[in-house]
Design a protein that fits this description.
Layout lengths: L1 E5 L2 E4 L4 E8 L5 E9 L6 E7 L4 E3 L7 E5 L5 E6 L8 E9 L4 E12 L1
Parallel strand pairs: 2-10
Antiparallel strand pairs: 1-3, 3-8, 4-5, 4-9, 5-6, 7-8, 9-10
Amino acid sequence: VQLQASGGGSVQTGGSLRLSCVASGRISSINVMGWYRQAQGKQRELVADIARGGSITYADSVKGRFTISRSNDRNTVYLQMNSLKPEDTAVYYCNVLLWSGSRSFGQGTLVTVSS
């Protein structure tokens, strides 16, 4: 499975961005799609993910501000980010968890939130 992410950029505090990630290849092998992020000097952390059946997980830090969704054909995942804060600044990575249990990350997209 290959992942192509887009949508990063620079915004001011309170602004919004929408990230998209398109998966190609064996789409049927994908169970969960989601986003991780890694801020400078910190570990990579889960932001949000959505399973094929529709169950969603959010990090506490983004609940109420970010919304994850998945296209009907299950090959695209979106992350709508509202009320952005400087602490949301990070490289965001699209991620899939396959039914086999293996995990794959796409290239990162940088999100910068200035105060």
